[in-house]
Amino acid sequence: MAETAIPNFCRMIETQHIGLTDMEKLAALLVKLRFLPSELAVLLDLSPQSVTNLRSSINMKMFNQHGTKSLNFNIRSIN
Q1: pLDDT grade, residue 14 (50/70/90)?
Q2: Cβ-proximal residues to 73 (8 Å cutoff; 6+ apart), any chain
Q3: For residue 1, is pLDDT > 70?
């Protein structure tokens, strides 16, 4: 279903050179769909700190930026 709604984003996160894990791909998709970090923690059965680490890893791999502050903006700006 996500492939139909946001195909370019789905293709991007599947790109091998980015190197996202399956968990990172799922979290990136949820961020794109405007889920909050607290909601990610519940849905992915992770601690809040693990969600922060996951988001930070996504931001580094996809956008070469440290931390999580810019992740939501970066992901949501992808068409």
Answers
A1: confident
A2: none
A3: no
pLDDT, tens only, 28-66: 999 999 999 999 999 999 999 999 999 999 999 999 999
Output the DSSP codes for 8-73.
HHHHHHH-TTT---HHHHHHHHHHHTT--HHHHHHHHT--HHHHHHHHHHHHHHHH---SSTTHHH
Among the listed residues 77, 30, 23, the one whose alpha carbon sits nearest the alpha carbon of residue 53? 23
Length of the chain: 79
**Over the range 11-38, which residues count as b (16 or more CB within 10 Å of their CB) and which as e?**
ebbeeeeeebeeebebbbbbbbeebebe
Tokens of 30: 């949820």
